[in-house]
Design a protein that fits this description.
Layout (H helix, E strand, L loop, with lengths): L4 H5 L7 H12 L7 E3 L5 E2 L6 E4 L2 H9 L3 H9 L3 E2 L4 H11 L13 H13 L25 H12 L3 H8 L40 H16 L7 E5 L5 H10 L2 E6 L2 H13 L6 E5 L10 E7 L10 H11 E14 L11 H6 L8 H10 L3 E7 L1 H17 L1 H8 L1 H20 L2 E9 L15
Parallel strand pairs: 1-3, 5-6, 5-8, 6-7, 8-9
Antiparallel strand pairs: 1-2, 3-4, 9-11, 10-11
Helix pairs in contact: 2-6, 3-4, 3-6, 5-17, 9-10, 12-14, 15-17, 16-17
Length: about 450
């Protein structure tokens, strides 16, 4: 290894970082990138005070050569061939600002000249070779049938959720809620620290206060959903995509309702049933491994769908809305809590990191599309609440917990899977902070029955 000054600046004949910087600039579609690059030979290039992106082997450059763009960079990160030894949020924000790591829409193909420059750099750095196999964490569900068929949806859900309940517990904490929390607004929520929280009792980056933190913010979200749905003792509620049962348990214990929770994840269902038994709620909480399209025992007084409709797909969303309408009694309310794609008229690239590694077949649609589908199904819209900044804070808190428990997370799920979740949650937080994505609670009702409250203060 060359440890001389020339290698450290990347300008000497033995230093690789300067050439690597030029190649990455080509991929990102910019000239000088706002990162400090560290190559496998110890050389460095780029602004000295910028976040560090470390290329640990030539194999990382080879992946980028074969998949120039977000996918190649992501594969190298998941495989451990690229690392961010400092603040992951700062590094990914710099990549996003350079133009290609979190850009909406399909990746712009490189021109012949750009591709030639990238290839020439790879040749000079000894990185040319066969296309490396994708990391084993990459989803492979294409052979599971037609997209959004019951079989393929089940495989997609299993890929994401059946990675170990203990792993999720490390990240989510005792609440086991895997959706946007609702943080208190004390005027300082926008000042979340860059690396998330700092200790086990205050994962919050947000200024929720020491008594609240992530767990308090998740409980506040669950209670907000219950109030929006107008839950009363004796009601029968359907929880679509019930996860590990947190909403079902909260609604049954605090509001005296009976809940049917459906999920396609067997691991989630197993833990949800165990939690219901430990809480003495098995008479009021029924957890099923079942597709929402197969629920036949309606009508229900209320329906919650929290972080589930992203798995439905754009083409199937009208049918999803129709199905839930048919499962509600007249006057019953549905709360649909979902991530929205805010970068219209483009769509997320199906060949990018999150569809390949995190949510295969997942599709984010705009808030307008979701509201239109619900209205077309004859629902009456009662309220829409945007929670975009809340989700950014939630994701930073999850990253904080993952990093504090990193060694245990690797032990439970493997280094590659832990890196997938770290990359996914950190990059998603940046997406919410920049407004690329949003998250919204849309409250609707099936017309008929009793009238809703005159003002939203009834649940706010």
């Amino acid at each position: 290894m060359d440890t001389g000054a020339a290698a450290q600046t990347g300008t000497g004949s033995t230093g690789h970082a300067a050439r690597l910087e030029k190649a990455l600039g080509v991929v990102l579609g910019t000239g000088q990138i706002p990162l400090r690059l560290r190559a496998w030979d110890g050389s460095e290039a780029g602004p000295p005070d910028a976040p560090v992106l470390e290329f640990k082997s030539r194999r990382a450059l080879r992946r980028i050569l074969w998949s120039p763009g977000q996918l190649g960079l992501s594969r190298a990160y998941v495989a451990g061939e690229i690392d961010t030894p400092g603040d992951i949020f700062a590094a990914f924000t710099a990549l996003s600002s350079a133009g290609k790591f979190a850009e909406p829409g399909p990746f712009r193909p490189l021109s012949a000249g750009e591709l030639w420059l990238l290839l020439r750099t790879a040749v000079r750095l000894g990185a040319v070779g066969p296309n490396p196999a994708p990391p084993p964490e990459e989803a492979r569900i294409a052979k599971k049938g037609r997209m959004h068929s019951r079989r393929r949806d089940s495989a997609a859900i299993s890929h994401h959720y059946d990675v170990g309940n203990d792993f999720y517990a490390l990240v989510l904490g005792p609440s086991m809620v895997y959706s946007c929390a609702v943080w208190p607004d004390d005027g300082a929520a926008a000042a979340a620290p860059a690396g998330g929280g700092t200790d086990a009792g205050k994962d919050a980056g947000p200024s929720a206060g020491p008594a609240a933190g992530l767990d308090g913010a998740q409980e506040a979200k669950l209670d907000l959903v219950c109030r929006k749905l107008g839950l009363q003792p004796g009601m029968r509620v359907l929880d679509v995509g019930c996860g590990w049962g947190s909403f079902a348990l909260h609604a049954a214990a605090r509001y005296g309702v009976s809940v049917v929770g459906v999920t396609l994840s067997r691991e989630q269902a197993g833990l949800a049933r165990k939690r219901a038994a430990e809480a003495g709620l098995t008479d009021r909480v029924d957890i099923r491994v079942q597709d929402y399209r197969d629920v036949r025992d309606g009508p229900f007084d209320a329906i919650s769908s929290i972080g589930m409709s992203e798995h439905v797909g754009r083409a199937q969303t009208p049918a999803y809305a129709e199905a839930l309408y048919g499962l509600l009694r007249p006057g019953g309310r549905l709360l649909n809590h979902a991530i929205s794609w805010n970068a219209d008229p483009t769509s997320p690239d199906p060949d990018s990191f999150i569809p390949r590694y995190v949510f295969p077949d997942g599709e984010m649609i705009s808030l307008g599309e979701m509201v239109a589908a619900l209205e077309s199904a004859r629902f009456e819209v009662l309220d829409v609440e945007a929670l975009r900044r809340h989700y950014a804070l939630t994701l930073r808190a999850w990253v904080s917990r993952l990093e504090r428990n990193w060694d245990e997370a690797v032990k439970l799920a493997g280094a590659g899977r832990a890196r997938v979740w770290r990359l996914y949650m950190a990059s998603s937080a940046i997406g919410f902070e920049t407004g690329l994505t949003g998250v919204n609670q849309v409250l609707v009702r099936r017309p008929g029955g009793e009238e809703p409250p005159l003002r939203r203060t009834a649940w706010m």
